[in-house]
């Protein structure tokens, strides 16, 4: 099975059912599928081929979903990029992908213009909301097999350079099936997705909904929480996936009890852990819904979920492994540990990525030989503790990744940008506790003699070059940074 | 005369908010032109965390409390929207 068969099969069985509701209105399965066929034909006529990378740089909208399916139908590899990405980084990502095609939105034209000047590989750029000259759909046989790549999803790495996670059709179909096996999405579900499609948690909401014939309400973001609850009430939403930042907005700024959310039956959290207090508030705000606490990573989509009946007993556990997956903890020497121990989580299953795009060294650090000859298992880089019954509790990241606003922030990536300010001698970026965002980004900066910057200068410099969630909230100017004997900056001593 | 005064007040508020947005969200990048009716979200200027910062700024600067029912795109998603909202809010408070 290929990933786009989710849509195609449902379009054949339930053509008139609403697949997506966006700002422009509702779209049926038949319509989304036909639009994807026409865009695929147009991309083919422009020379996009099997295996080519198609970058999709758009806010959440129907056109973005159509673009994803169009790329898949051609056997091309899609990469949905966060619409908050700035020019320079977009150029870098397009070059890294060696993308053949960029599909974007008119609101992002200015960002794309600069980026395209850097990215020579892009031969076709489509502004999806401006040009409607799609070719007529033609009968087509699948070019790809399930071993081929379906997507490349970027994630931050400890090296500071974003890494493209390569996912095959088999990886993504397997992950979707495993997640659906425990969440039990149904044909009559109405899933409110305000998570970006560039984030696998958002992307899979659409894929899984389309597998079962459910309806997705696609919102751009959680920015106006009142709107989210109004949409949920009006459309009788049954599923609400979120991240801690989003749930804080929904429970602190607005009063869910004022909205008629009687249909809401599932709430899920991933990307970062909620505190016990946050879970309590969330359950009080949405008493009608079953709450799923989950843990995953782009490299394999999802790893664990806490069965809802365990929530009162083990509120801080991320649960146990999802179906069709095996996992275990290892010590520093790679030895498998028994339940009750603390160690790095290792994951085995057909959802485990094919590696990082054109990064063999980093791929080899995370994908290592498994129990069967020739197989690779995923070393998560995350340290967990397990209890006597095998339930997992997150301890720390092996490296120093910061989780800000539910997004991964590599300190190195931020530091690399700060280092480009003239006169910066040294900098170290850490996560500091933040009531709303889990962690906030804080930069310590050492300036050369005679240099003067304000906190605002550094934040502005970063804001022009990094996504907003990576921009430091605090900047502290210091005379020096704590070091190890080897001269490496000790991040743990800061913050 | 009476009709002109609120108009001036709204323009002054807009100029102040524009300056705040430019300094805190645009930061020189993508700043080309933010029109008075352009959606902050539509132009990818402000995300969900940004709107919290904007609300905090408005509350501190203008001594108001942004109520739950006022956290809408009509009020908070464009310079004109913010200008109209604040004028209503401040006018109401002073009346």
Q: What general outline of chain B do the C-alpha atoms trace?
A: globular
Which spans of chain A have pLDDT < 50 for at least 5 consecutive residues?
A: none
Helix amount of chain A, in percent?
A: 25-40%
Question: How many whole angstroms does the radius of gyration of chain A measure?
Answer: 22 Å
Strand order of the largest sheet of chain A: 11-12-13-14-15
| Helix segment tally of chain A | 13
Largest sheet of chain A: 5 strands, mixed
Which structural class is indicated by helix and strand composition of chain A?
A: alpha/beta
**What is the CA-based Rg of chain B, rounded?**
13 Å
Q: Alpha-carbon distance between the termini of chain B?
A: 18 Å
Q: What is the end-to-end distance of chain A?
A: 48 Å
Instruction: Sum up the overall morphology of chain A in one term.
Output: globular
β-strand amount of chain A = 25-35%
Query: Could you tell me the strand content of chain B as a percent range?
Result: under 5%
Mean of all residue-level pLDDT scores of chain A: 92
Query: What kind of sheet is the major sheet of chain B?
Result: none
Number of strands of chain A: 26
């Amino acid at each position: 099975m290929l990933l786009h068969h989710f849509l195609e099969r449902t379009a054949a069985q339930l053509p008139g059912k609403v697949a997506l509701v966006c700002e422009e209105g509702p779209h049926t399965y038949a319509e989304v599928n036909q639009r994807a066929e026409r865009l695929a034909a147009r991309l083919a006529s422009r020379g996009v081929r099997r295996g080519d990378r198609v970058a999709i740089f758009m806010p959440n909208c129907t056109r973005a979903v159509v673009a994803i399916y169009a790329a898949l139908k051609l056997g091309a590899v899609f990469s949905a990029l966060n619409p908050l990405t700035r020019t320079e980084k977009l150029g870098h990502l397009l070059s890294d992908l060696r993308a053949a095609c960029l599909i974007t939105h008119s609101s992002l034209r200015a960002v794309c213009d600069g980026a395209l000047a850097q990215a020579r590989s892009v031969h076709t750029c489509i502004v999806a909301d401006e040009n409607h000259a799609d070719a007529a759909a033609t009968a087509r046989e699948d070019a790809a097999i399930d071993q081929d790549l379906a997507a490349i999803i970027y994630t931050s790495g400890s090296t500071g350079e974003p890494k493209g996670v390569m996912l095959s059709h088999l990886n993504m179909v397997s992950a979707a099936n495993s997640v659906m096996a425990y969440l039990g999405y149904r044909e009559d579900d109405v899933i409110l997705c305000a998570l970006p499609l560039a984030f696998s948690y958002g992307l899979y909401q659409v894929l899984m909904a389309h597998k079962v014939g459910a309806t997705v309400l696609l919102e751009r973001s959680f920015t106006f929480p009142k709107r989210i609850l109004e949409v949920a009430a009006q459309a009788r939403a049954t599923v609400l996936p979120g991240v801690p930042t989003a749930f804080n907005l929904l429970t602190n700024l607005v009063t869910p009890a004022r909205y008629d959310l009687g249909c809401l039956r599932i709430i899920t959290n991933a990307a970062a852990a909620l505190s016990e207090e946050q879970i309590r508030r969330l359950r009080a705000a949405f008493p009608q819904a079953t709450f799923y606490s989950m843990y995953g990573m782009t490299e394999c989509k999802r790893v664990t979920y806490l069965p809802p009946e365990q929530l009162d007993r083990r509120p801080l556990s991320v649960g146990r492994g999802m179906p069709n997956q095996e996992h275990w903890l290892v010590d520093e020497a790679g030895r498998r540990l028994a339940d009750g121990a603390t160690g790095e989580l290792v994951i085995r299953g057909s959802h485990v990525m094919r590696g990082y795009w054109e990064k063999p060294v980093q791929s080899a650090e995370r994908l290592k030989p498994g129990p069967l000859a020739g197989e690779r298992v995923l070393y998560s880089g995350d340290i967990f503790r397990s209890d006597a019954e095998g339930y997992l509790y997150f301890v720390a990241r092996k490296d120093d990744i910061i989780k800000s606003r539910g997004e991964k922030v590599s300190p190195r990536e931020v530091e690399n940008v700060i280092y480009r300010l003239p006169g910066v001698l040294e900098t170290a970026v850490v996560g500091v506790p933040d009531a709303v965002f889990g962690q906030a980004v804080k930069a310590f900066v050492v300036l050369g003699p005679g240099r003067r910057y304000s906190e605002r200068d550094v934040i502005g410099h970063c804001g022009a070059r990094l996504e907003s969630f990576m921009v430091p909230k605090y900047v502290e100017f210091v005379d020096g940074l704590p070091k190890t004997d080897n001269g490496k900056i000790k991040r743990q001593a800061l913050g | 005369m009476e009709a002109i005064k609120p108009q001036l007040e709204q323009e002054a508020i807009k100029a102040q908010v524009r300056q705040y947005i430019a300094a805190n969200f645009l930061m020189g990048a993508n700043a080309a032109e933010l029109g008075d009716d352009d959606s902050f979200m539509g132009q990818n200027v402000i995300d969900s965390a940004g709107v919290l910062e904007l609300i905090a700024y408005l509350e501190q600067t203008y001594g108001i409390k942004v109520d739950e029912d006022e956290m809408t795109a009509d009020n908070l998603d464009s310079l004109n929207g913010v200008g109209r909202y604040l004028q209503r809010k401040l006018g109401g408070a002073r009346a």
